[in-house]
Hints:
It contains 8 helices and 14 strands. By secondary structure, the chain is of the alpha+beta class.
Amino acid sequence: MKNLEELSEIVRSIAWGASDILQSYYRQDSQTPNLDIQEQKDGPVTAADVAVNSYILAELQSALGNAEFGYLSEETYKAYLEIHGQIPLPQSWVWIIDPLDGTRDFIDRTGEFAVHIALAYQGRPVLSVVAWPEQQKIFYAIKDAGAFVESRDGSTVKLQVSERNIVADLSIVTSRSHRDDRFNKLLHKLPCQNQLAVGSIGCKVATIVEQRADVYIALSGKSAPKDWDLAAPELILTEAGGRFTRFDGSALQYNRGDVSQWGGLLASNGCCHAALCGEAEAILAGIDMDLK
């Protein structure tokens, strides 16, 4: 198998190609392909999702084959589920792919959508790329080798989260959508009230590693973030010095069969991580008592 540095170069090239495809759908002129928006249970799917997914899978499988690697993609998982049921992919090395994270933002034209590609080994990410097409940036990381942002001209900058360590001064990056009443109550009661609304989870984590925000919280309700929403952003954040855990401090695991990441998750610059996790758990316990 190629080493992780070689794999990262391949995936970054694929991510730039995926960005170009998304932007061909995103621009609105006479040459723009039809989005063909389909509303589904877990949110909308567009022709752009499908086209980028096909491109990424074709490019990865052409370069790397199917012998060593499994491929867990948002757009192909349902077909896998119908054949195999809710069991993990059998390979130790699994590519986890979201061809368009932030589809609603793509449709609403906020510019805050991303491409996620991560490689997990035995359930933990070891290589990841998040492309932010409208920013013309690719964020990438390799386990124990740091996180970087690459511009279209090939220049790179090493990423490092902020050192802000006073809870009240921290900024939370939040969703415009995907917010139920329970989550809004949690946000209202947290000691840090500076909030920045951003779309895709990949874009949210990008704001943290570029020091424009410090905290991101995901709280499952009727649905939950999926493996492909989180695997690539997680590694970029942790390699930039941040932390990404469940509220109880445990690590996220991927390719477990159930692709939903239930419960409370917190990403941060790491400075007040344990305190914020404890605070969030205590606030939620109070909220849930009031709801009974």
